[in-house]
Amino acid sequence: MDKISMQWMALLVILINQDYSITQALSPHSSSSLNQRIQTSSSSSSSSSSSSSSSSVFMVKKGFDNSFSTQPVKDKDRQKSMSALQEWARSVGITQKGVQVATGEPIIGGGLGLLAASSIESNKVMLQVPNYLTFTVSTSKLDANPRVEALFKNPKAYVDAPWWAKLSVDLNVCDQIDSRKSAGSTASNENEKQDSLESVDMRPWLDSLPRSFDTPIRWTKEEREALQYPPILSMIAAQEKKTRDTYNSLKEAIDPSSPFINLSFEDFLWGCDCARSRAFSGAYGGTAFDPKPYALTLLLVAIYLGFGLGTVEQASNGAALVFCGTILKDFVLPKLFKSKKYVICPLIDMANHKGTKEDANVAFEYFANSYSLSTKPDVTMDKNSEVFISYGPRSNDALLQQYGFVECDNVHDVYIMPPLREWDIGALEESCGRTFQPGRLEKLDRAGLLGGESLRKNGDEDSFEEGIANRGRGVVISRAGGIDPAILTALRVLVSTNEEWDAVGQAVGNMVTEYSGGKENERIARNVAKKAMELELMSKATSLEQDEQTWKMRNSLSLSAQDMLALQFRIEKKKLLKEAIFALSLV
Fold first, then answer.
1. C-alpha distances out from residue 335 to 103, 122, 341, 374, Å
2. How far apart are CA 570 and CA 298, in angstroms?
3. Residue-level pLDDT at 483
4. Which pLDDT score is estimated for 510?
5. Which of 118, 132, 251, 342 is the most core-located residue (most Cβ within 10 A)?
6. What does DSSP say about strands 199-201 and 135-138: parallel, antiparallel, or unpaired?
7. What pLDDT is recorded for position 470?
8. Does pLDDT of 122 surpass 70?
9. Residue 116 belongs to what H/E stretch?
10. In this predicted model, which residue has the larger pLDDT, 61 or 179?
11. Side by side, which strands form the sheet with 35-37?
């Protein structure tokens, strides 16, 4: 009889493993914002003691729970639910070491957040949450959630929905229909031996979620216009249309006999707000470490060699194939397909945001099949200090629209002015004392320099709100870098005299560097940029000084949460413009 090839046995192992991991293998997720930490320990207890120093930690992209910093949380029922949440966390296997959910001072704004209950050393795991407690979806259309899909007469509507819509549906199903989740499976794998697994009641965590949001999608037209910033208005309008269209599509696809048929738009919007403000995305797309295929491989190797069915070399080749298959499934394919996974992780979702110098990072623990919150290698926490993470380099546009708050002096903030072609050329000529020569604008248009680059160029669906603001290729001014250097190049060309233009060979590319058109050309180009920003400030309904005075009087004026958010937002935008004007004056 011919000897059996060990390679075929290895393929058998992979096929057996397919029953519980094929969905993840075919729908990997990737992002530049959340790392996968590969620990050398295979147990939760060992991985919760100290983070591996060799782990690569990335910034969390999506945020969790940041209440408006100027007033305390008004949802008293939600505050009262915190003690029940802590007890629930202990009962379902969430490991807490030196950190707890807290309300009031010293949490920012007197709201909700994570507080260090004791001193915490650097690179220490403070929270570890089993994967089965998370709500997880991906951008891959091959991902499956049979429990939720069964509620639709046309499941494709759910499968094709944006990630935030799928998370909204998952949250509403758990909140309205059945609050139990299967222990040992994630939200996207509820079909995995669900009947035989112990279930976990998610109600205490659901009760801890905010039931109202101050995101601008809920504001009136007048409240939105108080932002005094057209780009964010277009962003909100696009978000509103996309949300409404997605709801209508999902609503139409729900099975009429399903208890989910009564899903209202308000409930759907609540789920979307929860998803956008509490989920984070990650680069890891495979399954967690599972010893079963390796144990089966060792058994097959022993049988193969014990009965003399082949050589040691053949057995080794087969075992190597299993190992390579796992590496391919868990590490290579997720990066190759470049789809994303989005995760809402109980308790970790309570962490508030700090744009720079955050205290902690979130990571996926491969061997422990859990998510952890750990202090950064260069951070130690004092007792009773709030634990901050970073939601990523997000402008105040994104923070307000998706999370409902504004960060003061946000280093990642930007201001988008109208494209250069829409600037008041007559006013600019008058300010600089030069007449712009014929043909310059046409030359710049052909060179693509009449507008700034889009904020987001990768086109992924979760950035459409922030990207929509600059589809007109407006002039981008950032707090970190000032006015877009490409616009300064365009202005050097625009204000140049015939002599200056001839001196650079009438080539736009020869005016890229500072003073490339001469000192006088540089001075005038910068003055034109300053004048354009000053005109932008003058176009606002209120000045920065008026807004700052209103802010000082906010408590006596009985402003609504929306009014204060709009006020804080426009103050930050005007401050950014003032800073950019001052920076141009220094040269």
1. 39, 30, 12, 24
2. 64
3. 94
4. 94
5. 342
6. unpaired
7. 63
8. yes
9. strand 112-116
10. 179
11. 35-37, 360-365, 370-375, 125-130, 95-96
Strand partners, 115: 100, 386
In terms of DSSP H, where are the helices of 307-408?
A: 312-327, 333-337, 396-398
| Type of residue numbered 250 | L
In this structure, which amino acid lies at residue 167? L
Distance CA 301, CA 10 (A): 9
What gap in Å lies between CA 89 and CA 96, rounded to an integer?
Answer: 9
Instruction: Report strand pairing: 352-353 vs 341-344.
Output: unpaired
Task: Report, in angstroms and rounded to the nearest whole number, the Rg of the chain calculated over CA atoms.
Answer: 28
Assess contact for 477 and 471: CB atoms under 8 A. no
**Burial class of residue 52, CB neighbours in 10 A (0-12, 13-18, 19+):** middle
Pairing of strands 341-344, 99-103: unpaired
Rounded distance between C-alpha atoms, residue 62 and residue 279, angstroms: 5
Give dist(CA 26, CA 35) in Å, integer. 20
HEC profile for 16-59? HHHHHHHHHHHCCCCCCCCEEECCCCCCHHHHCCCCCCCCCCCC
Could you give the angle at the alpha carbon of 229 between the alpha carbons of 226 and 230, nearest 5°? 110
The model's pTM:
0.77
In a 3-state reduction of DSSP, which class is residue 427? helix
Instruction: Give me the pLDDT at residue 500, please.
Output: 95
Q: Is the pLDDT of residue 443 over 90?
A: no
Distance CA 236, CA 531 (A): 29
Kindly state the tokens that stand for 139. Answer: 């951008």
Token pair 């940041």 is at which residue? 66
The secondary structure of 217-270 as a DSSP string is GGS-HHHHHTT--HHHHHHHHHHHHHHHHHHHHHHHHB-TTSGGGG--HHHHHH
Give the span between the Cα atoms of 27 and 44, in whole angstroms: 26
Average pLDDT, whole number, for the chain?
Answer: 78
Residue by residue, what is the 3-state secondary structure of 330-352? HHHHHHHHCCCEEEECCCHHHCE
∠ Cα 273 146 38 (to 5°): 70
Which pLDDT does position 373 carry in this prediction? Answer: 92
Cβ(468)–Cβ(238) below 8 Å: yes
* Res 66 pLDDT > 70: no
- In the chain, the amino acid numbered 488 is L
- Between CA 20 and CA 473 the distance in angstroms is 46
Q: In the block, which residue shows the tokens 């207890």? A: 45
Strands (E), 432-562: 475-478, 482-483
Sheet holding 135-138, edge to edge: 135-138, 341-344, 279-282
pLDDT higher than 90, residue 299:
no
Please answer whether residues 402 and 413 qualify as being in contact, where contact means their C-beta atoms are separated by less than 8 angstroms. no
d(CA 128, CA 141): 29
CB 181 within 8 A of CB 202: yes
What H or E segment, with its residue span, contains residue 127?
A: strand 125-130
- For residue 523, pLDDT over 90 is answered with yes
CB 362 within 8 A of CB 342: no
Cis before 216 (ω within 30) = no
pLDDT in tens, 524-551: 999 999 999 999 999 999 999 999 999 9
For the cut 50, the answer to whether the pLDDT of residue 485 exceeds it is: yes
Instruction: Report yes or no: 392 and 406 within 8 Å, Cβ to Cβ.
Output: no
Q: How far is Cα of residue 407 from the mean position of the Cα atoms in its chain?
A: 16
